[in-house]
Amino acid sequence: MEIEVKSQSDNEIVFIVRDAEVPFINAIRRCAMVNVPKIAIEDVNIIRNDSAMFNEVLAHRLGLTPLVSDLDAIEGLPLPEDDGWDDFNSGILFSLNEIGPKVVYSKDLISSDSKIKPVYDTIPLVKLKEDEEIIIEASAKVGYGKEHAKWMPTTVCAYKQYPEITFNDAVEIDYDCASACPRGVLKSDRRSKKIKILDIENCTMCKSCVRASSNGYINVGFHENDFIFRIETDGAMPPKEVLLKACDVLGEKADKFIKFSEEGGSK
Ligand code: SF4
Q1: Long-range Cβ pairs for the range 103-111 (8 Å, 24+)
Q2: Half-sphere exposure for 203 (CA within 13 Å, toward CB)
Q3: Measured from the CA of 197, which atom of ligand 1 is nearest?
Q4: Domain range for residue 211?
Q5: What is the pLDDT of residues 98-111, one digit of tens each?
Q6: Looking at the structure, do residues 126 and 80 belong to the same domain, yes or no?
Q7: Which CATH number fits the domain that encloses residue 24?
Q8: What is the Å distance from ligand 1's center to 81 Cα?
Q9: What is the pTM of this model?
Q10: pLDDT of 121-156, one tens digit each?
Q11: How many domains does the chain have?
Q12: Does some domain include residue 240?
């Protein structure tokens, strides 16, 4: 199996995996979405809320505020499977104490741990009118995406098989197929009597080009064992960390399964 990173930024990684199987790639995708630990606000103690926003909605907004959850931040924190995880004080404590008129932003959340804070400062949480007050205590905990979307580290985690475009040279060249492509993958070059493939990785395999060709000049398929994989995060974790952790989790699951089957599947 070969892996080639095509692009990488703080929030997104795109890479190509060659010589792999669909179940393996899909297992990585699922582990990245639901088995990689992330920090999010879980318990909210609303002491005072004079705003027009219901307590439940406010708590929901706090839960979905992305918090820095890289490996450094998560290290040493209790996981849902650990004893005492349910305790309010076992999490990272946040406080919010504001008086209107103002818009309360994510940067107003004061964390008890300098490493763990909202990823973005400018997420509006609630609007307060003159003299309206809000006093909140919250506890953030490590959790998994399988329990709640707020613990899902990925906002996009998807793959497609590597596209393959072929031309039938036995029939007349059909330039209509190039102009039918909505993604700019194909370009007609009437001078050299060719249709050029500009960026095959941008092809969605929608087959608009195939339908536009009346004589079957173009055909679109895919490489069965090659994949283009894209992971995007909300900024809480670098996408490469998500991928590496997902691979670790999958490895641990495979080890457990091997052990289970070697023991005769009795437990
Ligand atoms: S399959 Fe769709 S995206 Fe791909 S080349 Fe044809 S029209 Fe463009």
Answers
A1: 103/127, 103/128, 104/128, 104/134, 106/65, 109/62, 109/65, 109/138
A2: 27
A3: 5
A4: 2-34+155-230
A5: 998 999 999 999 99
A6: yes
A7: 3.30.1360.10
A8: 46
A9: 0.88
A10: 999 999 999 999 999 999 999 999 999 999 999 999
A11: 2
A12: no
